[in-house]
Amino acid sequence: MLEQIFHLRENNTRTGTELVAGLITFLTMAYIIFVNPAVLSGVMFGQDTGMSFNAVTAATCMAASLATLLMGLYANYPIAQAPGMGENFFFALTVIPAAAAAGFAEPWKVALGVVFVSGILFLLLSLAGVRRAIVDAVSPSMKSGMSVGIGLFIAFIGLRNAGVILTDPGTAVKLNTHFSSPDLIVFAAGLCGTAILHSRRVKGSILWGILLATGTALALKLLMPHLPPGWSGGRVVQGSMLVSRFEPAKGVFSAPAWPAATAFKMDLKDALSLAMVPYILIFLFMDVFDTIGTLIGVSQQAGLLKDGGLPRAQRALLSDAVGTVAGACLGTSTVTSYIESAAGVEHGGRTGLAAVTAAGLFVLALFFLPVIHMVASYPPITAPALVVVGSMMARNVARIAWDDYTEAIPAFLVMIGIPLTYSIADGIALGFISQPVIKLFSGRGRELNWVMHVIGLILLAYFVFIRAAI
Predict the structure, then answer these.
(1) How many whole angstroms from its chain centre is CA 130?
(2) What CA–CA distance (Å, rounded) separates 179 from 182?
(3) DSSP symbol at 75
(4) Are 273 and 113 in contact (CB under 8 A)?
(5) What are phi and psi of 174, to 5 degrees?
(6) Residue 229 reports pLDDT greater than 70
(7) CB 344 within 8 A of CB 354
(8) Quick one: pLDDT at residue 58?
(9) How far from 63 is each of 258, 264, 379, CA to CA, in Å?
(10) Contact 295, 337 (CB under 8 A)
(11) Who has greater pLDDT, 104 or 162?
(12) Spatial separation of the C-alpha atoms in residues 461 and 327, rounded to whole Å
């Protein structure tokens, strides 16, 4: 039956490989189960947005499971979905305050309404084939640039999460030289273990690396009981974006939460008011280009692109759009495809069975929150997987037509723009705006699909008239 549904042989994969790939993808993105409710409820910022932490936790798991299941069964892609990082911060720190400033009594409900309306627009654009047209119009060099940029972004996130890279007021970022700190020891153990196993072509090297990092963290916790809960080699490093903590799980099972406090609480009437229209457009922009970038990058890494095109692109984009609508109904911010899916792809995931596995684990997570929390809440454990995956995706740099500057320069802007802006959407926009200009003034405008010229104008107008005004 699995062969009939997912076409495993056709995609040169096996059931066991897909199951482990789904597990790896889930582990590398499971942090969202705890980060998203902390952001949307305001716990992370010490303020109350009005949204229940437990309800958002349940909504996060359920929305991620539903959207990922749809991606696996309907589109047959090994790509998991969940409420997007970036979109959730925009939801909590910009849209909710904007709704409050507009005088709405329950601004979080208005914000959910904004997400719902943007999701309907995503769905309409997908049904009309607009988003697929964008995917097909992107040149091979630009697709490779997206893949490399996302790989660099993933690796950068991993290094930041592990505490290897720290924020610095003078240089923006710097190297953490406290190499004896437990954070870096755990990260180094996981990275070296994963790299060695991967180089020896050991199946499941990324999963083994995660397990090795977890074991190292547990060992350090047992061997150094005098360390305080905040591990930093006995010192708190100033300027660090993240003071990581590791606490062994105090149990295995937990009673699942339920999203009753947030489900179907959208305020659609106020969400459609003139004051909230710009935020609907911003969510539209973020989801469209986050999804397109992730789909192209991960699919190219998996070797799923056919003649430069993305098979079943319409189904994949519809899955994403439906996920956003369902997420808003359950009570969470925009649901989008996750770049961490590349971790499962690197293990060998090639079909929707990997996504279905991850979807099932999101549901199970509601019953095993202590264990999931132990692994996912301590970023140095999963950071090595992100760095290794990033290095694998970077190899696509060889596919860029470097001898053609009308292709190479826009692709390069995408490649460096994604990690430097800390946004897939903004990084892609740099390339999409610059390429039509370079092509036109080089006398080669006809080489570019007309869709790219239209997108370039729309994005330029978006940044000049909408984004700059907010």
Answers:
(1) 22
(2) 8
(3) I
(4) no
(5) -155, 165
(6) no
(7) yes
(8) 93
(9) 12, 13, 23
(10) yes
(11) 104
(12) 29
DSSP state of 306: B
Label residue 451 by pLDDT band (50, 70, 90).
confident
CB 60: neighbour CB atoms within 10 A?
A: 31
Measured CA to CA, the distance from residue 385 to residue 28 in angstroms comes to 7
CB atoms within 10 A of CB 98: 19
**Unique residue bearing structure tokens 């320069």:** 409
Q: Do residues 390 and 151 lie in contact, with contact meaning Cβ atoms separated by under 8 Å?
A: yes
CB 335 within 8 A of CB 327: yes
Is residue 239's pLDDT more than 50? no
Token pair belonging to 445: 């405008």
Give yes or no for a contact between 166 and 158, defined as CB atoms under 8 angstroms apart: no
Contact 24, 320 (CB under 8 A): no
Listed in sequence order, the residues at least 6 apart from 3 whose beta carbon sits closer than 8 Å to its beta carbon are: 9
Please say if the pLDDT value at position 416 is more than 60: yes
Residue 81: its H or E element: strand 81-83
From residue 252, alpha-carbon distances to 5, 132, 248, 358, 376 in Å are 33, 43, 11, 19, 14
Residue whose C-alpha is closest to residue 355's, from 397, 288, 304: 304
Hey, which bits of 86-240 come out as E strands?
165-168, 172-175
Q: Is 167 left (phi over 0), alpha (psi -120 to 50) or beta?
A: beta
The two three-digit tokens of residue 153, written as one number: 């972004």
The count of C-alpha atoms lying within 13 angstroms of the C-alpha of 86, restricted to the half-sphere facing its C-beta, is 21
Dist CA 27 CA 372 (whole Å): 8
Q: How confident is the model at residue 241 (pLDDT cuts 50, 70, 90)?
A: very low
In Å, the largest CA–CA distance within the chain is 68
Coil, strand or helix: which one is 34?
helix
CA-based end-to-end distance of the chain: 51
Task: Tell me the per-residue pLDDT of 320-358, one tens digit each, with 9 for 90 and over.
Answer: 999 999 999 999 999 999 988 988 998 889 999 999 999
Q: Where are the beta strands (DSSP E) in 188-293?
A: none
Which phi and psi angles does 181 have, rounded to 5°?
-70, 140
For residue 459 the two structure tokens come to: 């994005």
The amino acid that residue 185 corresponds to is I
Rounded CA gap, 331 and 56, in Å?
6
Q: Which two tokens stand for residue 91?
A: 């939801």
pLDDT on residue 266: 96
Tokens of residue 297, six digits:
């990058």
> Other C-beta atoms within 10 Å of 47: how many?
12
Q: What percent of the chain has pLDDT over 70?
A: 93
- Tokens 């490093």 belong to residue: 237
